[in-house]
Amino acid sequence: MLYHCVYFWLKPELTAEQRTEFRRGVETLRGIKAAAQVEVGVPAKTTLRPVIDASYDIALIVICADVAAEAAYQVDPIHLAFVEKFKTYWTRVQIYDSE
C-alpha cells in the first residue's frame, strides 16, 4: 500500500464560506477510482508536544494499492480539477508519501 499524506495551510484571509468550499473540494477526491481509501481531517486535539505539527488546516490521506495507482490518482481529472480550482486557497502544501 502507498500512503499519500497531504497537509494544507490555507490563506488566513479566506472566509468561513471559502474554507467550507475548500473542504468540500477535498472531499470530491473520494471519487477517484485509483484511490482505495480517502480520509480528510483537521488537526486533532491531542496534547501538543514538540514533535507534533498542528499548524496545518486540512489533512488529506489517500491510500493507494501501489505507486502506479498513486500516479494514476495524480492525473485523474477529479484531482486536476481540484488543484486548478483551489490552488489559490493555500499558502503551503506538504506531502509525505510512504509505503
Quick description:
With 99 residues, the chain is an alpha+beta fold.
What would your notes on this structure say?
With 99 residues, this protein is of the alpha+beta class. The chain has a single domain (2-46, 63-98), classed as 2-Layer Sandwich (Alpha-Beta Plaits). The protein is built from 3 helices and 4 strands; from the N terminus they run βαββααβ. The chain has helices at 16-27, 67-75, 77-86; strands at residues 2-10, 35-41, 58-64, 90-98. Strands 2-3-1-4 form a 4-stranded antiparallel beta sheet. It is globular and about 35 Å long. The N and C termini lie close together (6 Å).
Brief descriptors of the model:
32% strand; alpha+beta; globular; 99 residues; four-stranded antiparallel beta sheet
* Strand-residue proportion: 25-35%
- How is the largest sheet built, in terms of strand order? 2-3-1-4
Overall pLDDT confidence: 98
Radius of gyration: 14 Å
Total number of helices: 3
Note the gap between the termini.
6 Å
| Overall morphology | globular
Number of strand elements = 4
Q: What's the story with the biggest beta sheet?
A: 4 strands, antiparallel
Low-confidence stretches: none
In sequence order, what are the helices and strands, one letter per element?
Answer: EHEEHHE
Q: Please report the first level of CATH classification, the CATH class.
A: Alpha Beta
Helix content range: 25-40%
CATH architecture: 2-Layer Sandwich
Secondary-structure-derived class: alpha+beta
At CATH level 3, the topology is Alpha-Beta Plaits
The tally of structural domains comes to 1
